[in-house]
Amino acid sequence: TLSAISDYHIRRGNIKESLKYDTRICSDEGVPLKSKLDRVNIYTYDQKVYVENYFRIGGIITQLTIDYPTDRRVVEKYASHLIAGGELEAALEYMLRHLDDESSTAEDNLSALQLIYYLKRHDIITEELERAEERYPDNVEILSFLGFVFGEMGSYDRAIETFEDALTVVDSDKERSTL
After folding, report:
1. What is this structure's pTM?
2. Residue 95: in which H helix or E strand, if any?
3. 9 Rama class: left (phi>0) / alpha (psi -120 to 50) / beta
4. H or E segment to which residue 109 belongs
5. What is the torsional sign of CA 135, 70, 47, 38?
């Protein structure tokens, strides 16, 4: 099979040759998405391999975004790929476009918020914070991050209010103590 041939080349250290086979595997409509992502993860796991083959791996990931445009695993993989290449603004725009996807999760929103905060995008942070709070009013991680960011922005009353909301959501004293 193509996977076996690719694995053979990987074991021999011939990554460029293995990528040729994995490009074919990932283009095959009959192969499940999970298997395709597992193949890609072989290359993104090892930083040296990833750096040396960034554009070839990117070609495979890009093909997956065409074939599975709203699958959150593919969205996450492509955003991570852009971040790995230093394209933080492009990754952020891509992530924001996909927050309305049906498969989007609180974790996806939190990742986007963290990147917005890291990039110091004050022009959009308040809007995205409020959007996340509206979507996930009972998510402790989102509420905690919102409280932190509101505090950093000097909106202390809003920060306190958000942390108080988070305290009402948690189930145990252990979780409350982390807030």
Report:
1. 0.84
2. helix 88-97
3. alpha
4. helix 106-118
5. positive
